[in-house]
User: Fold this.
Amino acid sequence: MAAEIRTFTCLNDNFGYLIHDVETKATASIDAPEAGPIIKALEREGWQLTDILITHHHGDHVGGVAELKQKFNCRVVAPHDKTTKIANVDLRVANGDVVKVGTLLGRVLETPGHTLDHVSYVFDTEKTLFAADTLFSIGCGRVFEGTYPMMWDSLLKLRALPDDFKLYCGHEYTASNVKFALTVDPDNAALQARAAEVARLRAENKPTIPSLLGDEKRANVFLRADEPAVAARLHMKGADAAAVFGELRERKNKS
Ligand code: ZN
Ligand code: FE
Assistant:
């Protein structure tokens, strides 16, 4: 059945997302950076929070969970990873599990690298991907807990989704990502087009999200680490894709 999605800002540059099932009125928050803006968004729509789907244990993704749980008595769904301590969890999920939000079905993809517990939620019928801090528009998350091959593998899982899926990521980092990407991928026409679009959206103070996964596959250099042209650009001809990805990520860290 039909889903409605709302996008808003939390903290400095986190995205808050609500996904609402029109049929049953169930509403999930994807992560909970802070309670205030999520409560406001719910009130604007007249929606009741039934679920929180957590992607990973970082404070800017779980900081609002306790307050929301207290207020709405909602179900809290979080990655199955005993190495992390996310509080107030009702359901632990792992790769391939399907979470119901009313009649909507969110498929869990384990996408470790940024953290070891990181999962993404895919709503296939809605052609929607919530990738949090694994895949950003024109970028990807920092690799804090995992390894470069692990993160590259996670990005490949997301890249395998269809081109017409919409990417909803964890942060509004797109302008900074574009700036970096142009330094390593300056001749990419898809990137140049995205750069122009992002400049326009930011000038109008609009979010750059969602973007289409097909556009990301063409314009996001972090999804193209296995292309010979990208390796050549980094003077890494013939190198392993995960190594090229690692070099890209390290250059971005220093940019
Ligand atoms: Zn994070
Ligand atoms: Fe984050």
Summary: Residues 175 and 198 are 6 Å apart (CA to CA). The pocket of zinc ion (ligand 1) is lined by residues 56, 58, 61, 114, 133 (CB under 6 Å). The chain has a mean pLDDT of 97.
